[in-house]
Amino acid sequence: MYDSERLSPNTFAYILMVPAALVMFGVVIYPFLYNVVLSFSNMSLRHFRDWHLTGLKQYGQVFSDKIFYSVFFKTLVWTFVNIFFHVTIGVALAVILNRKLFGKAAIRTLLILPWAIPQVIVALTWRSMFNYEYGAVNLLIAHYLRMSPVEWLGKPLEAFGACIITNIWLGFPFMMTIALGGLQSIPRELYEAADIDGASGWQKFWTVTVPLLRPVMIPAITLGIIWTFNNVNIIWLVSNGGEPSDQTHILVSYVYKAAFNLYRYGYAAALSMVIFAILLAFSLFFLKRTRASEAAY
Fold it and tell me: What is the mean pLDDT of the segment spanning 193-198?
């Protein structure tokens, strides 16, 4: 047993870090390195035990595959539309909740509920609501809008839209929570000074609220982009694995299909490394361009 009084502070600190470092190596570093090796191999169902390294062949197949570019485009649309609505709805609700409001605590709890419910339950619930004949969405459309029912899960565009609607409902509470915390940290004196200068509510929002929310929201938006880009659960469960005819895949769900439906492990590993490179490059560029680490005051 180690005696902490005889060890230097640094040595004792390193000993305390060993369990966490072993867990990190086992669940993050080793799987990542193994995935890198697989991306340079021909591992598949036919070469499950006798796989060998094939260089950049799998990467060549990824970039020569026409479906990669169409799926990549859909991934960009999926990410942009989701983040746009997550941020706009989240910030708007945070501004409302930051005011004096009757029943604010109850409203805030209800708005956070979508974020607290497991994604699997949310996805399957929304999938049942998008049912053509008995789903609540079509019943509301027919009853209140007097429109024909929409075949949400039977056509590519409608199915992709159903996935986006589900993920918007799931994702705005996170942005609302972050924005509300940022709003509560803004000094009231700044708004009082703006009132003295005769600024309107819209001017106070753009000249006081937005600049001071930026350091809080930029990291949250970066995380949101990465989570949305990699969100396989909603796409897979709402569209039932990319239906109809694999037309609703984004990159990460296409990786899942390549690995666990088609058993193309080397190809899937190479595609996942491409996704990792895209997200790493975007995150570094986005944080640098937005200067998120600079102080706001």
Answer: 88
